[in-house]
Predict the 3D structure of the following.
Amino acid sequence: MAQGEQQPLVSVVVVNYHGADDTITCLRALADHDYADLELICVENTPGSADAARIREAVPGARVIEAGRNTGFAGGCNLGARHAKGTVVAFLNNDARPAPGWVSAAVAELRSQPRVAAVASKVLDWDGTGTDFVDGGLTWFGMGYKRHAGSPLADVPAAEHEVAKDVLFGTGSALFVRASVFAELGGFDERFFMFYEDVDLGWRLNLRGWRVRYVPESLTYHRHHGTMTSVDAPETGRETFLLERNALAALYKNLADETLARALPAALALAVRRATARGDLDATQLDLEKGVGPIESGDVAIPRTTLAGILAIDQFVELLPSLAASRAVEQAARVRTDADLLPLLRKALEPAYPLPRYLAAHDILVEAFGIEKAFGQRRKILVITGDALTERMAGPAIRAWNIALALSAEHDVHLVTTNPLATPPPAPFRVSAGKRHELEAPIVWADVVVLQGHVLELAPSLKKQHSGKIVVADLYDPMHLELLEQGKGVADDKRAADLVGVTKVLDAQLERGDFFLCASERQRHFWLGHLAALGRLSPRLYDADPTTQSLLAVVPFGLSPEAPARTGPGLRSALGIGGTDHVVIWAGGVYSWFDPLTLVRAIDELRRRRGDVRLVFLGMKHPNPEVAEMDIGARTIRLADSLGLTDKHVYFNEQWVPYQERQNWLLDANCGVTTHYEHVETTFAFRTRVLDYLWAGLPIVTTDGDSFADLVRAEKLGVVVPAEDAGALADALEKSLYDEEFAAGCVERIAAVAQRYAWPEALKPLVEFCRDPRPAADRLPGSADLVTTPAVRGRAMLRRDTDLIREYLADGGPSELARRVGGRVIKVARQRMRRG
């Protein structure tokens, strides 16, 4: 931390229960700690004792809060947190002492990693030679445990305790949590009383997308069970009861439905076997098959350790109504799957207890209930498009289809179109159509939702900032820039209103999304500006990732990784074009932001020199009936008619070529072309038809100004021409069609470039994100600033107001002073009215 840098206030909560001597030692160590901004809070859980007075007298700098009853560790910590003023709350057992740097190391991690909600300290025994906490694990039946606990530190591999890492939970004996996040989650679950409340908290944090980070430099020393041994003994069964009950409660609250359906019955059965094995109880003593002897109806002696397990199940049932309500909250808020957290469980199939009868039952239950499979559930990903899913798919549908295909290799994927046209080809994933009211069910099903276009407007539940769903917004199509061109024939007022509406649609996506896709580096710069204007590039998000690559990734439109192979006749057969004619192909639709008119004029000029030149427009009618036909198509046909080119040198294919057959048409061509006007839409456009040219190995002729023009020029894939220059365009087409050496060089270079745009390569950032999806750093529930500006009071406030008066008088005299003061009075009045 830089010299003089402002640090967050850290409130350290210590709970006392019949342990005043230890508590005083702990608080005195904290009072002398090397972190300056500490608030010490001691919660007194010992009703009717003199401990509170002793602690106040011994450590006057500590704030002692008397609970009035024994609220347990969970309740005591929560009570202390409610009184805390710090933006970070630390919990330290009263029988622990902090090493130098304990606080500063944790604070540094929280400040540098905005996605980390909690820091788990390294905890050693009192003399520092034994291990208490260096890692957490969780069994499939809900029991959290401290890996390597009780081992000599010298026997623990250095990589296990000297390296920072993500963990499922930290021990409550030495734990730091962002105060705002702790409050958001309701703190520790007080029904646990003590034991596993820290496991449950860490589990819930991880499920909501936060990280819990073990930081070895944040070091404490701990007398393990110092308080517990002073008030209870293991043979009473009380600790066993709490451990057994709380493990079941944590399991029930936090596992997903599919996993819980397998794990809970097995966990209950295993808890019974653990109880009988722990008490060495003869489980066959009432079995009639053993024979009938003298009638015995007296009580059977049951060890307390056995009774503890049975009573724990009984009281778990008692808690179920309230746990069910908590479960509903946790499951609605979760954004991570059980499979996501599996690495943090470390060894989920660890039996945990070395008792022969118990171990045998463990293996039986794991096999019978398919426990190993339960924790490997695939993530559920919903891809929604507004485009038609048919044999004749256009760009948005093709992109959504390939996104679904790429993700289906690792996840359960459901592709939904809101378009009424849905007759898709066979797919290795589920495909369906749904109207607005039919989207809610697949959204509830999904863990991650990938959407494009106007889809978010059809799914209001997704707009909620904490809907529990990860949202990926595909921004490859800057619709508002297209609309500037597309709406030119519309009345001025409607055109302006339409633009405002589309911009709001995009704004809503940018404000809600956790991850964004764009098609090029140019687009990335454009969308970064948009995100900055909306306030999404916050310090919190920037600190989490200064590159912003984890928020906005370039995922270009892709092409098939397989080379095109002819499966049937192409354009020459369909349109009656000769086998030796030189064909220029326009792949894709004709829209108002393109310039097909200059292209037709260039063909008119070129055919005078080269009589066998042919231009083919691949599809004039868009397959999506919701896409309105644009006047530019009709104008192009009229121009070709007037020049006597139609069906001689210029051909218009009226229907869209089926997606699975387009290669047959492309392979009949000699050159691909795209021409457009010089405007803002061009600057940020990504002409997906150019990818078809790369796929088919066609030399490319393109107008300058877009990202593909940069690619063609840099990689020498064809010719780049100025906008609206028919002469230059005719020359470029002639060179690409008739200069065999030039064309061959283009084709060779295109083969290498095409590999970069294959769908598996193009979609890598999305595939990587979906392997570990989390909310964006500024959208994590409970996020708040750690360091805030102190309120100005007293003399400092008077000095500030005096300086402002001088400034206002200097700027504009008495009238400026009156205006400023009046505005401030109105602002204060409004604030008071809102509070009232």
